[in-house]
Amino acid sequence: MARKIVVAAAQLGAVHIDTPRKAVIDRMLVLMKEAVSKGAQLVVFPETALTTFFPRFLIDDKEVLDSFFEHGADLTQSPNLKILLDEAHRLDVDISVGFAERTPEGKGFNTCIYYSGSQSRILSKYRKTHVPGTFEPFPNPDAINQLEKRYFEPGNLGFKAFRVPGLLPDALKKETAGGPPSRELEGKGDPIMGMMICNDRRWPESWRCYGLQGVEVVMVGYNTPSFSPDLVSSLGPKNEVDGEKEALYHHQLVLKANSYMNSCFSIAAARAGRDDGKYPLIGGSCIVDSEGHIRAESKTTDDEVVVAEIDLEEARQGKEKLFDFHRHRRIEAYGIIPSQTGVVEPPFLSQKEELPN
Predict the structure, then answer these.
(1) What distance in Å separates the CA atoms of residue 318 and residue 327, rounded to the nearest whole number?
(2) Which Pfam family is an annotated match for this chain, by its short name (predicted)?
(3) Is residue 309 pLDDT above 80, yes or no?
């Protein structure tokens, strides 16, 4: 039985440090309407979509820093987010949107939410887990900084998959299923989704946590520099052109591989372009299927909508055969994964020691 939905990645072009929040939101509204006009039921926006990627700047003034965050315990009443959520409700479309969150306790998180237009409520909230970068700026004045560790706490909500009502008219409900989910009923309920942010997509643990919950669609918003040797590797490309190619390659690599290994679709939405005329970000917004193939992708680094129809039933092939976790996972062999953080190399061999068989 086909389980088809139409999804979109809403890519945003350059947003400068002095770009008014309203101007960015107006652009997002245009993208949302365009996506809906093309049949989209779900629109995914980038990481920290409402502002420039401010962690590249050293900001000591607390008032200035706080101006980049959304505040309050009830994010539906955040004035900036409310504009987007109200329009999503009016258009009857679901959206996932990233932003900087300041909690009532004063903590900062790199956050995204999933809002159901039909339900008129937030279904899930995620906070970025794998916070990259540094606390202090690089000594090199020309380096591109990523001071996320200075401004954001590591996420504390985990990777919690969630079901989304209203997208599939024939989805099984608790009442019609006659009981809780079971092996025989897998892939027949409302779509199972998960969210992650930027650097999270590079860590297989992020995807496997969702895969073990039967995830069918993973949404990823990101801001990825196209050339940042101080952040990534001094052994890599030596110029922006080659750097962009390498960054796009790794971006697509992790989406393709992890979508395939967890038998799920993924939707990736970029903040792209050259912020403030000097900070280049890749585009590469795309929709990847459960076999690791790109179904649709952006052609520019400007504001752009990428749309595709996906059939969630296709993901059953991997979930029931090659990556049937029920039959093939060997958890007794994976103990090192949850018990160890850094690398611990095996002991050195002695000159006289024979290698083990």
Answers:
(1) 12
(2) CN_hydrolase
(3) yes
Cα–Cα distance, 279 to 290 (Å, whole number): 33
128: annotated active-site residue: yes
Residue 65: pLDDT above 70? yes
Cα(217)–Cα(312) distance, rounded to whole angstroms? 8
| Domains, the chain | 4-333 (3.60.110.10)
Q: Indicate the DSSP class of residue 134.
A: -
The whole model's pTM is what? 0.96
Among 47, 101, 148, 297, the active-site one is 47
**What pLDDT is attached to residue 231?**
81
The string of DSSP codes covering 69-98 is EEESS-GGG-HHHHHHHHHHHHHT-EEEEE
Q: Which of 198, 209, 264, 286 is catalytic?
A: 198
How is 27-76 classified by DSSP, letter by letter? HHHHHHHHHHHTT-SEEE--TTTTS--GGGS----HHHHHTTEEESS-GG
Using CA atoms, how far apart are residues 9 and 307, in angstroms rounded to an integer?
A: 7
Beta-bridge mates of residue 12: 271
Name the active-site residue from 70, 87, 128, 209. Answer: 128
